[in-house]
Amino acid sequence: MFLCIYRSFFPPVQTMPKKYEFIVVFIVAVFLIYTWVSRFGFSLPSLEGYVALFEEDAWFLVFLGLIATASALLSLFLEFKLSRSATFIGWVLYFPVLFNVLLPMFIPFFSVIGVFYTPWLALTDFDFANMLIHGFIRFPNESVQFAVGITGYTLIAAGLVIYSLSLFQLLSHNRKGRTLLTRGFYGVVRHPQYLGIIIWTLGFAISGWRLINYLVWLTLGYLYLVLAEYEESELERTFGQEYLEYKSKVPLIVPYLKLKLFPKIASKRKIRILAYTLTYVTLLIALYHFLNPYVIMYR
Hints:
By secondary structure, the chain is mostly helical. The chain has one domain. It is 63% helix and 1% strand. Strands 1-2 form a two-stranded antiparallel sheet.
């Protein structure tokens, strides 16, 4: 029923994708189940032992994050294709970040919350990954630590607002017919929902105080940039010259950022994706080397 309601708001741009692309979801699910069962068997962990360490005030943030994640994943599944399946894998890797705000010091795989860290469980066999997962980022200056924490919460709030309002705006607009939306948030960037997702997921990454948070956030953000690029071709086919004019005036995801330095190069999608990839790899390396000195291992 929900799919029918959703389709009334979002008429399909093209036919539903081939079924084999859902093999990606099946493989990921099997991998996660195998990873947990091979370590801990079929019994689920209990709440005993680590529940006293949970940050009770953070449960509300986790609840909001789960709702926003479910909404983002739903939009991927309704028109699943190769580019969206890659973004789905990015969400799988990012998912444990939501729960890092509850336990900022280490991951208790033997508590019930440990089930949600299964995507990272296989990484704990490697010393390097253990440092990324278990290490706690601690800045020596308390004022810096406080400012970073406030920044994380602010980004969560701002990102969720942008994501929710832009989604509501699109739903309201599409009820009137399949026309191009160019006002409101869509007059600032062409993909405001993706902008909101990138912002609020960065907020959770900051608030969880772990180095791996930033690395999987960068991965998710990179995949959304690539997804947006591939969606552009569909929008161009649907709206034609109208969308090309809109595209020439409004940035992709980052507000007020337009690639004017090399217009001919920037106009080629493959080159843009290559530029995103190089930037992504560079930022991964830079973030690791910048934050690694502040990582403290408690065990």
